[in-house]
Amino acid sequence: MILVLATGVWDLFHIGHLNLLKNAKGLGDRLIVGVSADELVIKEKHKTPVIPFEERAEIVKALECVDAVVKQVTLDKTELIQKLKIDILVAGDDWDKLKGQEVLEKLGGKVVFFPYTKRISSTKLVERIQKYGYSKYDKNSPSTKTIKDNV
Predict the structure, then answer these.
(1) Contact between 56 and 42 (Cβ < 8 Å)
(2) Are 114 and 88 in contact (CB under 8 A)?
(3) Can you say how many angstroms the Cα of residue 86 is from the centroid of all Cα atoms in its chain?
(4) Could you give the domains of the chain?
(5) pLDDT tens digit string along 17-54?
(6) How far apart are CA 23 and CA 32, in angstroms?
(7) Helices then strands, each counted (H, E), the chain
């Protein structure tokens, strides 16, 4: 059985996240997803996730392509790799090298980098909301009425 590990914050879940996870699942038999703890995000990215850990984990766990979710408390994936006996570690190609990559490769595993979805990111979503506000998505806005009228 080939075990695949993908880790991330998965905040403001979007199509780039979904594409990475679906592609990761295609590499093996089981996909295990590490979801970064809020404390890790604050420490490493110097910002608080919009969606709390428990909710992000629940969203990821609900995906058909995901077999299991684990809490990620450090960027170093060595412990997860060894404990879960991971064969393949995946990440977006916006990462150069992953902590734990050398350990995995010494154990005979490999790292796969998928193309980063450049047009979308959680950061870009936050910027878009800050720029346009929530009114653009208000239930009384013309775009929302058009969508409702066409359903």
Answers:
(1) no
(2) no
(3) 18
(4) 3-117 (3.40.50.620), 121-151 (no CATH)
(5) 999 999 999 999 999 999 999 999 999 999 999 999 99
(6) 13
(7) 7, 5
